[in-house]
Design goal:
11 helices; Tetracycline Repressor, domain 2; TetR family transcriptional regulator (chains A, B); 2 domains; homodimer; HTH-type_TetR-like_transc_reg (chains A, B); Arc Repressor Mutant, subunit A; mainly alpha
């Protein structure tokens, strides 16, 4: 009943199997969250033996780290973001975040990472390091703004909140709001956090 | 070894025991997240039999719903928020959110709720209903702004993101940022989402 053509075909190579496990893991982490994702569940969904999952990835934390790793080089993204006009950095960053959520290479990774950060310190640390320290702090500093760490953290709060509200909590109408409208709505917030006044007088 | 003076004293009344379980549950949900909180762990920490936890609260979901229930009447908060000047609603809402996080009666509840929303649909639903539909949507509508649902959802994204960044992920320097500075930094964002232009032209 559960036999599939794939099982009957040629045995997939090692790197394909590894990739299959990784893709399945990413989907599980994004949809179920960290705590409810199990190596056994991933193995079942990927139709491989659970021992094979352990063979490729030594444990859930390692598997998560690789599955949720953001597929970008912070230095490259940073220089691209800093290349345009300073007064449009909010829009460029909003576009970058939406790109990351929608591109096939990264679909689900940012969601998995932010979902997991609610319970897993390792995921929270990835956000602090990969998103904040390696990207947002140098971005705020590169824009010549004082208080770069505070600006970066506020920027991160809106990015994290947008992903939470749109993809995890599902606050209507955000899940169905068009990309253009969303980027335009959020851009001035990111712009002010990165370059504008931080008080409301 | 584990005997405490409390055990030797007068047996606490039913309502005190119930309250003790509830306070312990709130702390566990806020610190551990939904999935890692167990009835047994709560019972152990509260020094009561796990059967007593089940007696008062029929299961983890019910216990969570009560532990994370926000201790306010949306109608009362709403009329208070709408009472002041329209152009200062962002600041009043920022103050309200920070009050909620800091007041003893609600300390931990908002954090527990948002942390749990990452994995537990019941918690996500509480946010959509109690925070968004009963408070933020009527607030945006009461301010006479068009597109009230989108405005409310964007507002919710920043509120959720602030709690995530400051209390759950811990993006420095937000955990140590003073209340006044934080309210001032976030207020213009909430103000624009609720009453300002939603595009960045």
């Amino acid at each position: 009943m559960t036999a599939t053509p794939r099982r009957a075909g040629r045995r997939p190579g090692t790197s394909q199997t590894r990739q299959l496990i990784l893709d399945t893991a990413r989907r599980h982490f994004a949809e179920l969250g960290y705590d409810r994702t199990t190596l056994r569940g991933i193995a079942t969904a990927a139709e491989v033996d659970v021992a094979l999952v352990s063979h490729f990835f030594s444990g859930k934390q390692r598997l998560f780290a690789e599955a949720a790793a953001l597929p970008y080089d912070p230095a490259v993204v940073l220089s691209r973001l800093l290349a345009g006009p300073r007064e449009q950095i909010g829009r460029r960053l909003a576009d970058q975040v939406l790109d990351l959520i929608e591109a096939p290479a990264s679909r689900g990774r940012l969601i998995a990472l932010i979902r997991a950060a609610a319970s897993e310190e390792g995921a929270a640390q990835l956000i602090r390091e990969r998103i904040n320290r390696e990207l947002l702090v140098p971005l705020a500093a590169g824009l010549g703004s004082p208080d770069a760490p505070l600006r970066a953290a506020l920027t991160g709060s809106q990015v994290v909140g947008l992903v939470m509200a749109r993809h995890i909590v599902g606050i209507d109408p955000l899940p169905g709001t068009g990309r253009e409208q969303l980027a335009a709505a959020v851009a001035p917030t990111l712009q002010r956090y990165l370059t504008g006044p931080l008080d409301d007088v």
